[in-house]
Amino acid sequence: MAMTPPRKIIHIDCDCFYAAVEVRDNPSLRGRPVAVGGDPGRRGVIATCNYEARRDGVRSAMPSSQALRMCPDLVILKPDFDKYRRVSEQIQTIFKRFTDRIEPLSLDEAFLDVSDCQQFHNSATRIAEALRQQVREEVRITVSAGVAPNKFLAKIASDWRKPDGLFVIRPEQVSEFIGALPVEKIFGVGRVTAERMHQLGIRHCCDLQTLSRLELGQHFGSFGERLWHLCRGEDDRAVHNNRRRKSVSVERTFEENLPALHHWLAVLPALEEALSRRLANLDNHYLVNGLYIKVRYDDFTSATCETPGGLADREVFENLIRSQWQRRPGAIRLLGIGLRLKDALPARQQDLFPEEKRAALALQRAGRS
Ligand code: DCP
Ligand code: MG
């Protein structure tokens, strides 16, 4: 069997992205602990913070009030998502100088497949350095990069020398690198799974490698098969350009918990309106492929309730909220609604599928209203 040469994947992740952009635009903040996030008096949380603030223990998703207690000098700024989107687009144009095989994961993160890039004699390491330098000079923020033969390892590598770092895992280094990797670094291994592994005496990927596929399946269910590959540093997922949006949703956190079903339902009109605005901003090559609601209870556990279907209709959301209340009544601090999306057929083919056409029209109406 002919062996295909290993891929050359770069994973780019901006350093404390929102905070870096804010400090860039306001030099008086340089050297001070800075966070971007919500108002501490209104249950706001930290979206991100710079490394000065991280030294005091401030972290993403921490309540802003707690962050201020840990770091009293912390400057908390309101997010400016439009600005971050513009900066993100500017970075993407730099990526496009090297390849068009780009898969953005979020505003500040992307995979690039540079296997066929002819610049720098096809050296992925030098391409990554050039990318980092061009972003630094033209956008004036720093990004960290990981270079590896696949996405899984490239993503771990970009984190390895953060901030402003580059880390390269060559194909011949994979087996040594992965063996020593703590299991917590595997994407999909959260706190609970890691704890279970520790109880089995498994701390590093080399320990996982001693388990058979069958044993991995017995301990970790459907994740077992994927784990078998990941703990060997294997990942054959391709870099998909223009990843399509899979869902669109809006949610609200309340200043006071909502204790009763009628309170839950009362929020729905405002959420629907916000969702419509979101939809209006999407191009319309999507069809609705399911509806869901999400709640977070006062003990911070979350739940979602979902139904298939193509029409984004008030009654369906109401029924989902009612079923969640039946499943578990109680006070909630957050409620969200969302739509699962799938790609629409080209307009001409829609005539062949009246159901899909109807759904597309409903989506457009929802977007306009
Ligand atoms: N973000 C957020 N809420 C979170 C995590 C992140 O709003 N819980 C936002 C703010 C970040 C951006 O997403 O700037 C990118 O997320 P990262 O996890 O990459 O975090 P940063 O880029 O801020 O920091 P790092 O230097 O660790 O990459
Ligand atoms: Mg980042």
Would you write up a description of this structure?
This protein has 369 residues and is an alpha+beta fold. The chain contains 16 helices and 12 strands. The chain has helices at residues 17-25, 51-55, 64-70, 81-96, 124-138, 151-160, 174-179, 191-199, 205-208, 213-220, 223-230, 261-266, 268-280, 314-327, 347-350, 354-368; strands at residues 9-14, 34-37, 46-49, 75-77, 102-106, 109-113, 143-148, 166-168, 247-258, 286-297, 302-307, 332-343. Strands 5-6-1-7-8 form a 5-stranded mixed beta sheet. A hairpin with a 2-residue loop joins strand 5 and strand 6. The radius of gyration is 23 Å and the shape is globular. The model is unreliable at 345-362 and 364-369 (pLDDT under 50). Bound molecules: 2'-deoxycytidine-5'-triphosphate (DCP) and magnesium ion. The site of 2'-deoxycytidine-5'-triphosphate (DCP) has 14 residues, from strand 1, helix 1 and strand 3. The site of magnesium ion has 4 residues, from strand 1.
Task: Summarize the model shown.
This protein is α+β, with helices and mostly antiparallel strands. It is 40% helix and 21% strand. 2'-deoxycytidine-5'-triphosphate is lined by residues 13-18, 47-48, 60-61, 108-109, 162-163.
Bound molecules: 2'-deoxycytidine-5'-triphosphate, magnesium ion
> What is the chain-wise order of helices and strands?
EHEEHHEHEEHEHEHHHHHEHHEEHEHH
Structural class label: alpha+beta
Q: Specify the overall morphology.
A: globular
What is the number of strand segments?
Answer: 12
Strand content: 15-25%
Helical segment tally? 16
- Describe the biggest sheet? 5 strands, mixed
The overall pLDDT average reads 90
Strands in their spatial order, largest beta sheet: 5-6-1-7-8
Quaternary structure state of the chains depicted: single chain
Helix content: 40-55%
State the end-to-end distance.
57 Å
Name the poorly predicted regions.
Answer: 345-362, 364-369
| Structural Rg | 23 Å
